[in-house]
Each structure stands twice: as structure tokens, then as C-alpha cells.
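Supplementary Data S3. Sequence and C-alpha cells for construct A.
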Amino acid sequence: MIDTLLFNSIWILPLLTTLICIPIGVHHSEAIKRIHLGSAFVVLGIALYLTIKTFLLANTAINSTGSTFSLNFVTQFSWWKTIGAEYFVGADALTLLMVLLTAIVVFTGMLVSWSIQGNTKIFFALIQILGTSIYGVFMSFDLFLFFIFYEMEALCMYLMIGGFGSGNKDYGAKKLTLTLALGSSMVLAALFGIYVESGIDSWNLLKLGDVVLPMSLQMWAFPLLFMGFAVSGSLFPFHFWSPDGHSAAPTAVSMLAAGVMMKMGPYACLRVAIFLMPEAARIYLPYIVYLLIFNVLLSGFIAIRHKDLKYITAYSSISHLGLIFLGLAAMTPLAFRGAVLQMLSHGFLTALFFATIGMIYSRTHTRDITLMGGLMKKVPFIGVGFVIAGFACLGLPGLSGFIAEATIFIGSFQNESSMMRIVTILAVLSITVTAIYVLQTANRMLHGKITQPAFETLQDANFKEKATIIILALSLFVFGLFPNGISEWIDTSILPIYTHLIR
């Protein structure tokens, strides 16, 4: 019972913290930041505790709902009886790992935002609300509740980029919001169709999973639902919001957007679209492979041409998100496992990337790598953090990127489709492209002579920034060095979906 309450508090506590801080005056910004940071630390502690406990007791997980999923910490009651909507949250391995990823990124995002300019009261409140929306997406097993949380994040992103961003922030915020709104409208249309055609007057994901939806529905609802979710995952041709959005966003927002929010798309594709409409998935997913040529290969070449650190990282994210969708399109258990591992790995590494980029920008006031040089001499701790993220990005053994990408490639090769194997080979070759832009960027930025006299006085990372780098880097090493137990645990969430797929 206590653990169930703790699980529900993960998304409730950030909202309560925001409400508690409302009466506090803006001039008490330091106290407000400490309250929010303390709240994020408590949520992180709860997420870590529940994840470790459930992982250690995975063999005794209770199937509280009578479904094929083994859910823990289930809370379920009717809250809008007229349309059959429920408050239904629960956790399996996939949920807990994504919640833990979110909690880590939210906490470290607050650490690097300590000196944010502007109204810190509003900024930290928006981080908390954004965190709530993301937690809710991963925890919800009622599709109506899921969609409410799914919509909240777009509004928060717009307010945070438009209010606290840099550069062409209005354009970036509008472009991101309009694109995500397009995806949400596609999702909503498909969900309405599923609700009506299922005949059970319920949004319960597990109940809907027991219904064989008519093919007349699946043939239009699946591509609409899958591509609607894929918008937030920057699947081609809906990738264009990401570079401009990231370039204008504050550091914490970039960390959350690339590290967690972009994973909501492939997560929902796997958890909802493929699970509910497996027959249509088998028809359409082979065609998704053609779109991935841009994601896994061409976006890497675009990254090589850019000089702005955030644009380079944004196109790198598009490429790595393509690997996640490659795992989903392959439709094998090993590829599904690899897709989840890549969600986690890319979440940590891209959060570390954007965190270190934000630290560098706050000191140099530029993101142009041609104007940098010799930074490793002045900010070695930040430089090492950037290099670790880069090594994880190109799949160096010992880090999470190697485990995730290798699993995807092997799982994709298990699919006997010629096109699938061609795209998989291209994806493997894209590692070379990744190595070029990662090493090129690190070399120009960190090594050589110091190009600007002002850089001579740069200060290395402070305590909060060092803590951010250590936490994120340690996460990359943990997932890279100890993959066995985590991989097997992930399978408990993957196999029910795969069983549906081959039914």
C-alpha cells in the first residue's frame, strides 16, 4: 500500500510543490529553487527505490489486472463514468525505467538551471509541470488519461521556450508547438475511432488489448496513430521541429525534450499502437523502414555540416531516434528490447550533451565550434563530460550506446526482409558518420589553441554542474557495464506486446 502511494506521488508531488511555492514572493528565488530541487530529489529517490525493489522482486510481480502485463502499484478507479474514463496507473519494467530516466533528467535539469535568467519562480514551476506530464504519460494505462498528460507537455514546452529561450525563440516555440499539435490531433482522431469501434465503452489499454479491432478501423487508425506519436520522436518527415526547437530552448528544456519527451513517441508507438492494432502493424511497419533512411543516415551528414553545437546534437538525436524506430519496425523481440535500451541510452547521453553545451554556452556566449578551441585546458571537467556523451553516442563499448545499438542491429537482422537488412546495414555504416561529427566537434571545441582572449579566464564546472555530469555519466556506464539483468527485465514488458503482434 505504501509503495502504491509512493508511486502515485511521483506525478503528484511536482504539482504540490508548484502550489506550495505560489505564495512565496519572487524575491525569495533562492528558497523557491531549493524547494523545487528538494522535491525533484525526493521524486528521484522514490523512482530509484521503486525501480530497484521491483527489479529485485521481478519474479514475484503480481498481475493485478488480469491482463498479460504484470503490473505493480496499480491504482484504478472511475473518474468520468459517462465515457468510461478511469484513473488507471501502474508500473511494469518499461514504465519504471522511463520514469527513472525522467526523474534523473528533471533533477539534473534543475541543477544546471540554477543561474537561469528571468522569473525563476515560473521557470522552475514549468519544469515541475513538464515533469508531471511526462511521468503521467509513462504511468497511465487509460488512454484518455494518457492523452491529457501527453498534451500537457506541448504547452509547457511552448511557454518555456517562448519565455526563457534564446535566439529566434518565438519561431522555435511556435514551430515546435504547431508540429506537436498536428501529431496530437492525429493521435486523438485515431483514439476516438478505437474507442467507438471497440464496442466496450472503455479507454482501458488492457481491456482494449483483448479486443480484436476490425481491420476497416486498423487500416486507417494505425498509420494515423503511429505517425501521430512519431511526430514527437522526430521520425521523417516530421523531424523539422527538433533542430529549431532545441536551438532556442533553455538548457533544461533541451535536456528534457531530447532526453525524455522525444522518447514518448516511440514509447507510445510500442505500448499503444502496435499493442492495440497488431494486424495493421504487420502490414505498415515494413514501409516505415523506408522513412528511416533519412533518420539513420542522412541526418548524420547534415550534422557534419553544422557548426552550432545544439543543431549538431539535434540532428544526432534525429539519427538515434531513427535507430529506435528501426527496432520497432523490425518486429522481433530482440529488436524491441534494443529499442527500449536505446530510449534509455539516448535519454542519458543527450541529456549530458545538452547539459555540457549549456555550461559551455553560459561561459563562452557562443555555440559556434569554429569560434572555440582549447577549452579542455580551461574547463576540463565539462570537456570530459562532453567527450563521455560523445563516446556513448558513437557506441563505444563499456557505455550504454554500444549495448543498445548492438541489440537493435542483431534484432533487425533477424527480420528476413531484404529492405530491413539493407537499412540495418546502412544504420551500422552510419556509425562512421556519427564518429566523424562527434570527433570533429570535440576536436575543434576542446583541443588546439585558445582562440578567444576572453576564454583565458573561463571557470570550470561548479559543484552543481559537476554533480549533473557525474550523475548522467554514471548512468551511461551502469547501463553499459551491467546490461544482463536490465535487458531480461525489459523482456517482461516486451513479450506481451510481441505476443499480441504475432497472434
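Construct B, processed identically:
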Amino acid sequence: MTEDKIIIFDTTLRDGEQAPGATMNLEEKLLIAKLLEQMNVDIIEAGFAAASPGDFKAVQKISSEIKNSAVCSLARAIKGDIEKAGEAVKSNERGRIHTFISTSDIHIKYQMRKTKDEVIEAIKDSVSMARNLCSDVEWSGMDATRSNRDFLFKAIETAIAAGAKTINIPDTVGYITPWEFHDLILEIKNKVPNIDKAIISVHCHNDLGLAVANSLASINAGARQIECAINGIGERAGNTALEEVIMALKTRSDFYKIDSKINTKLISRISKLVSNITGFPVQYNKAIVGANAFAHESGIHQDGMLKNRNTYEIMTPESIGLEKSSLVLGKHSGRAAFKDKIKELGYELRDEVLQSSFVKFKELSDHKKEILDADIISLIDGSLANNKSKYTLLELNVNCGTFGEKKVDLKIKIDNIEKDVSFSSKDGPVDAIFGAIKKLVPHNANLELYQVNSVTEGTDSQATAIVRLNNNNKIYSGSGSDFDVLVASAMAYINALERLQNV
């Protein structure tokens, strides 16, 4: 089976969420899914339906809401998992079940404690079961790149014969090199007799920093589906970064001679959205979406850019959606104009989130002369992150200076009850804020990360704060945005606690 384009299979909502601290609620997942749909992502892996009632509900909801992308659920080669997956995706017109089982000797012997014959039978039974529930079945051989080749080929042949339309070859532990992966895909094409009846997919992890390179090498060898995640988030070192693969294919179309149907102008937007929701900052020098990706400091580079952009830019900022925003909203803009603007930016918000975002917008317009799209995006993401039922920041006053302790007066609504506290610290205003919050919301979590980024340029820019808490070796991330960096910091800390308390 062949395709004239690269199929993009996004696993941000499944493998991406498996990154410690990246847990997302239903509303956040749906928001990401809808933007992935707008990007023309072919398949959205919405979750692992059997993992928890929350995961099942999320996959089910996304399946019913998404119309233009296929929605997929992961499932082990277990009857209960497959049934849950089938039930969760049945409302999606192109729903897919993605079932997997390990094929490497080390996994078979030590993790599953099965024989290879038992694994082959499990493949046959699980794929057949999935095929009876769903017309589109994908099969993965976990740890495929460390598997015995002959056994892997037999497993693939079995899965296709049982009804799998897509065969995924995962580099589960990020072990293989591009040259080896290229040869492996060629071997599969040459040695699996029924491989022409399926699309070859790859799922690469980044443990050696080779996920994107391995994915691109597989394309040259004939793979036609790439499994990836926004910003490359995922288990351990993460997954293939969607934005890097897409822009590599687009920028080097002369070499790859094949493309996806992705709307690249939404890349910057979804990168920021995923970062704000998960609390995972994008490193400054990250390819494509990092803050420095299109920054030029060297005098030689700057001179070249002024003469011809192509001297030092192989792609344009505009190609990923970084066009300069114009001032279209201001302090006199009404709710209808604001609503129209956020729809233009790709949001669909519940009334209460829309209202809280609008209130923040009006506050921001009193402090900032130029309100850019980035400002609006940030305050909406902040409203989404902090629109929780348990904790709400009501008031924050901070007294600080060169000498003496920093004093904080804080008021928080907890379960609809207003509580206030005063707290002082010798270690700065942020420490005082966090201490005050801890006094009202006692916990044993340790602060693992505190980071503040500017949304736009200038002294009147909004700040986005990120807080990461470690509680019994589990990570909980929170974010908050406000034109006041201390308010943003308090919101981020409260957001992280909200996630901790809701597990």
C-alpha cells in the first residue's frame, strides 16, 4: 500500500502527556485537538482509553468533536483494552485502534515473560479483535529496533494478515541510528511478503537526539506515516518533534520530494499553546519554534539579512505563523470584537472562560498601548490554565525593596470560601508569595522549577510564569500569565497545586 504524501500521526495527547508533569485536563486536550485538526493533522492519538476513566472520557469526547482528522486510541494486546479503545473512538468517522505488543527478546523474556509463539498468537488475536470493532487498525511492535529481525518480520506479516492497515516500527528507547533505521525499513519492504497491504509508520524517541533524523531517514526508505508530538514532548527525552519533521520536508522538498498536508502557519501557535498548557518551556535554541530560531546577532549575519534574507534564513518566520501582528483591539473594544478575534486565533471557549479572558483583556488594555495577538493568546491560555473550581487568586499585594523582609498579603478563594493570609520572607517577593500560598494550601511538594518568560517585547509585556512541583517523585506543572510578573508567578503556583490536588 502506498501514499503520495506523508501521513502525520500526532501523539501529543497520548505519548506527550506521559512526560512527567504534562498531565492535561479534558478541556485542554480538546483545545489542542481542535487546533491539530485546523492544522490538517491526519491522525490524532487522543489517549489510552483503558488507562483511566478520565482518559476514556477524553478520547470519547475528542472522537465526537473532531470531524476532519482520524482519532485514535492506544490499546495493549488485551481484550479489555481493545474493547475500551473501540468504544471510545466509535463516534469518529475514521476512528482507529492502535494496538501494540513487545517484539524484542529482552521485553519478551523479562517484561512479558512469554514465548515468541505466544507473542505471535497474541498479535493474531488482538489485531483480529480490533479489526472486528474498527475498520482502521494500526499495529506496533514495541522495541522493534532492538528486535530479532526475522521474528519482527514474522510479527509484521501476522499483524497484516489479521487485518492491520498500518504497521508501526517504534524506536521505543531511542536506540537506533539513521543509517540503521533506513536499512531496517528497506528490509521490511523486501522481506515481509504482504507489506504492500499496509502503510509503514515509525515512532521515534529522542534519547540520543536522533528522533527527527531517524524519522527522516525512514521516509527516504519508504515509510509514509510519521508519529510525532508538538515540541517533541513525550516519555524521557521525548518524541520526534512534529514541527521539525514538517519544516524539514517543506524546506528540503528538493531532496525529499514528498510533503504533508500540514498548515505550517499554525505551528508557532500550537507550540505556544502546548507549552502553556503543560508548563514545559520551549528551549530558546529549539529548532523552528525556539525564541532564537529566527534571531540574528552576529554582525556578518545581520549584514547578510539586511541585503537578502535568504543569506541566513532557510525558511521564513511567516511560514510558521510568526507574522507581525497589528493593533486590532484596544481599550474601547467590546466583547463581540474580542470574541471574533479569539475565534480568528483558533479558539472555541466556554462562556465562563471567554468572560474571564475578556476581563483580563480590559485590564491589560489599561496598561498596554499595543495589544498584539501574542498578548491575547497568552491571557486566554492563562484563563484556561487557571479556570479551575478549587483555587482562585483574588488579591495579591507585595511590599518589597532593597532592605528588610518582603511582605505579602494574599487572598485566595478555596472551594468558594475566601481565605487570606500575610506572610514575610527574607528571600525575596516570589519566595514570600509561594510561602503565603503554602500557608493557605498546605502541601509537601518541593519547588523544582520556577521560570518567567516575556510574551512580547517591551517593558509593558505580559509575563508567563512556569512552576514545577515535585510531590513523591511525581511532577506537577502550572503556568500563569499576567502583565504583573508577581501575579503571574502566584497564578502559576496555584495552577500547579490545582493539578497536584486533582490527581
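The first strand starts at residue 7 and ends at 10. The radius of gyration is 24 Å.
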